[in-house]
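FIELD: query
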Amino acid sequence: MGSEELQQSAVRQLESEIRTNIARMLVASSVVCVLLELGMGIFFWVTDTLSQTLGEYIAIKVLLPTFLNILLCLLAFALNHSKEHSERTKNRVAAVSLIIFAGQVSMVHSYFIPVWGLTLFALMYVSVFHDPFFLKIESVLCLLFIAASCWQHISDYPEQLSFSIQCLTVTELVGLLICYMAFQLELFSRKEFMLNTESDAGKQRYKSEYETDKLTGVYSRAYLLEKADYIFSNCNEFSPAGVAMLDIDDFKKVNDTYGHDNGDIVLNQFGQLLNSYNDGNTFCGRYGGEEFVIVFKYGEPKMNCDTVEELRKKFSEILFPFMDGRVTLSAGYYTAREHTSFEDALKKADDALYISKRTGKNKLTVNDKTEGDDI
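FIELD: result
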């Protein structure tokens, strides 16, 4: 999975979490609203300040809003876990559910002028869904709820018509400003996401180019040296480290006889073979030209040399269609049993490789006093 795909997956996961939070907020707020309305109804009834019958109050202020809130909660939860709808549809339903909830609260409590703009807070929150077109629709919906709250206030208090109009004008102007801020916030957030995506993609490309040799697919020299320096600077008698230096025999002759393109094919095939040995304890990389290095995090000489021998034999069995003979490789191996620089360890493996080249090629030589001179 590429960097951009990972980013998109992370965004989808984040949006799913936001939708879940919206659904939970709807449930919690619905419970609070029911308790608040019942408490206020009891207070108005006890103090004999209820402007309507108790039955009308319960029906209009409690049951109807609660029924609507339950529908919104169920809708938000159901779509968020649905596999039949797109992510955009789920986002839009969650956003509208939150705005409608805030809108009905502002209408039910229209006698509190400040709650007329409650939908605007919901608008700011749902702008994180990065849906510029639908954000405009949501903004219009918020402004309509402000007007509806004012209309409800006028219906309940007709004697305050002039004051209600003044409040509506101010709230709508503030609402337009907040809608504009929501657009800018969404635009800024979207641009920031795109920049982060491009930056992450660039870092991923740089990391890939730094870590990997393009032609062979094994670790690059720089990355291999970085890993090896740490391993060999921390090795000791109880935790030795090993290194093998490999060189393709007579590679210059392959290039001169069959061309550099075919020579690249040989290098690529050898790289693919080496990559099959890369794991958490073995690191294979291209040192330069036709020279390759294997770093063994755990320096068990017998086991590591068996690995190099297996690799040497497998490579010699590869058939290349552009040549009649086989291509072989020579190797040198060294085990470090105390803190040392990788450069010194590699020099000793290279000395062993030189012996392999000088004494017939297509063989492995060990530079380890405790293991003997030759395998």
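FIELD: remark
The two ends are 43 Å apart (CA to CA).
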